Amino acid sequence: MSNRNRKLPGIDRRTLLMGMGATALGGVVGCARWGVPTQVSSALAAVGPQPELAQPPEEVSRDGLLRVQMEAKYGRYDLAGRPVMLRSFDGGPLGRTLRVQAGDQLRLSLHNRLPYDPLEALCTAVPEIGDNTPRGFNVTNMHVHGLHVSPDSPADNVLLLIRHDERQHYVYDIPEDQPPGTYFYHAHFHGSVALQVASGMAGALIVEGKVDRIPEIRAAREQVIVFQTQRFDDDGVCEDYRVLAQPGPVYVNGQLRPLIRMQPGEVQRWRLVNASHQLNMELALGDHQFTALCYDGNPLYETKRVDQVPMVPGNRADLLVKAGKPGRYPLVVGKDADGRDLIAADIEVQGEVREMPLFSGRLPGREMLKDIDEKDVTFGRRLEFGLAGNISGNKYTINGLPFSCEDPWLIPLGAVEEWEVYNHTAESHPFHIHVNPFQMLSGGNVPPGTWLDTVNLAPFQRIRFRTRFENYTGTFVFHCHNLTHEDLGMMQAVRVVPPGSLA
Ligand SMILES: [Cu+2]
Questions:
Q1: If you measure from the C-alpha of residue 497 to the centroid of ligand 1, how many angstroms do you get, rounded to a whole number?
Q2: Residues near ion ligand 1 (Cβ under 5 Å)
Q3: What's the mean per-residue pLDDT of the chain?
Q4: Mean pLDDT value across residues 308-314
């Protein structure tokens, strides 16, 4: 449960935000703990009392190994003062944080203790059920989002299903050159991904490495900040897929609008995860700048000062934040359905001045992220994200077809590909591919050259990127990370095969 919070001196020239000063937000409830009801109701959330941001419990690897046992089960807890009963990992609003070093082995045993579910397989061959219909709410599996690991069992195989009372023993060998940064894990059974992830079946996965040995970064207090969008009905449950389409708040580590405390001049390192099922976020802290370290776990070539951080579902960001003047500042993550600021948390700057240096410069840990030149590209593809059918019964498609178990694209190991992905719809589709990160060429609201595993594909726009199919054969998927779109068909399997086996 180490939180590695350290007290060190520190300051900055740029003040934190426009001095909004104290608002009506009142006193502070002590450190919230898991399973303990927060003292905030949705109605009161905007006026306090406000819980202090809680850190999820943490599991830390030792001597190159992290063993974790998890249970998929219903959790009964209070969310913003409302009793809920939602699917979970281990009973809370968010799974434990897993912290490993690049090169470690993660052994994760997942026991499905959800009720019996009649679904027997991912590919049902039963037309009435179909492979792209919401289903399988009580079967599950695990995905380690962003890790460069094998897609085959016992590693990151998302095509299997864990039935009632079954256990799956996952073994992930995390490469020595896995970029050091923030990743996450979440349930990934096609048909119930959106419902399970929205309900809380996700958690942060931190890979430490060279970035973490930079003294100024090491000295910064760390905050794991996982954004979620639990949705439930008046009974506090989510048993109807349509509930997922309802608007609602953003929760942070299972709390509604918590308070993040900082001292003037203090530098904190924030590890952000967008674990929502379909919320495109754009983070801003007034006119205060963030110092970006990593996107999707991938260290940038060098630190970058940014005013906003776009985060679509599936994205992560590692940021340094330096506090300026005392005051209270809202962390805005986007707009709500009525066009008002959606505030996920408040930053309270108060107390003694701590003059901490803010790191800037080149970042290490990019061994896996070698630029991909045009001359290295062995194959190009054009993809189209679209819709088929009619408005009442449409299917989300890739190249005209919803997901099928029958037609993985075959790709030889070692291929270097350039993909151009079009969005033919009026909705955003966050593109995500498993196993291998990609390097952006254009689009996606990010600078060319950025390495990601998830990127926004805005309405009627296109993205271009290059990627290497390296190190692992096996079958995995790419899909829309608006997880309802994925469940409804916007997913495609690829099978990486030994070179030379494609005649
Ligand atoms: Cu989509």
A1: 28
A2: 429, 480, 482, 485
A3: 90
A4: 97
Answer whether residue 9 shows pLDDT above 70. no
Residue 492 tokens read as 């495609």
Give the 3-state secondary structure of residue 366.
coil
Q: Say if CB 153 and CB 110 are below 8 A apart.
A: no
CA of 60 to the centre of ligand 1 (A): 34
Q: 396 and 489 in contact (C-beta within 8 Å)? A: yes
CA of 352 to the centre of ligand 1 (A): 47
Q: Note the pLDDT tens digit of each residue in 104-119.
A: 999 999 999 999 999 9
Q: Which residues of the chain are in CATH 2.60.40.420 domains?
A: 57-209, 374-497
CA of 121 to the centre of ligand 1 (A): 24
pLDDT greater than 80 at residue 350 = yes
Q: What is the CATH number of domain 57-209?
A: 2.60.40.420
* Model confidence pLDDT, tens digit, residues 357-405: 999 999 999 999 999 999 999 999 999 999 987 666 678 999 999 999 8
Cα of 129 to ligand 1 centre, how many Å? 21
Q: What is the pTM of this model?
A: 0.90
* Residues 100-158 pLDDT 10s: 999 999 999 999 999 999 998 888 766 666 788 899 999 999 999 999 999 999 999 99
Beta pairing, strands 267-274 & 379-388? unpaired
Say if residues 395 and 387 touch (Cβ distance below 8 Å).
yes
Ligand 1 centroid from CA 431, angstroms: 8
Nearest one of 323, 252, 250, 333 to 289, comparing CA atoms: 323
Q: How far apart are the CA of 56 and the centre of ligand 1, in A?
A: 29
> For residue 260, how far is its CA from the centre of ligand 1 (angstroms)?
32
Going from the C-alpha of 136 to that of each of 133, 189, 238, 469, the distances in angstroms are: 9, 8, 13, 31
Q: For residue 386, report the distance from its CA to the centre of ligand 1, in Å.
A: 9
Span 374-497: which CATH code? 2.60.40.420
| 41 has pLDDT over 80 | no
